[in-house]
Amino acid sequence: MSLQPQSTLQWDLNNIQWENAQILWMPSSPYENLVFDNILDKLHTILADEFAIPVYFDEHRGNQSFLIDLLSDNLAQSFTSGELREYIINIEHQLVYSGTYHKNQVKQMSEIYERVKRLLHSNINNNDNWLYGRVESMSTSKDDNALLSAMQFNCVSSN
Fold first, then answer.
1. What is the pTM of this model?
2. N or C: more exposed end of the chain, with fewer CB within 10 A?
3. What was the pLDDT predicted at 75?
């Protein structure tokens, strides 16, 4: 026996109603994109407001940029009225150099990541967006024409 749509499929911004072979499903509350709205977008705003360096979500561009990437979204605790989630975000900073690699690029890169660490420590609790925000680890690497620093930012958020 296959299920065939028998009546309506209605989409109304925050309210979806499906009726199908005597099955009715309606969300109990409106959909909210918490990970993007409360974590990733706020992190983007903090970095963009502090630095004159572009912040992206997909790939590095230009001679210098930040890249924000969600690594994990884990349930820390569940309550009857919501849950506590831990997020791990990778923040990369890339600095492209031309010619010879020397200590000025290393100094410029370290000044940026030290400033990011201090900035995020100053925002350890970001209003209702996250709690216990911290840079857990930081690493640097070098390829033929770029330096890359990767910082692991951890925080928790409740909904």
1. 0.78
2. N
3. 95
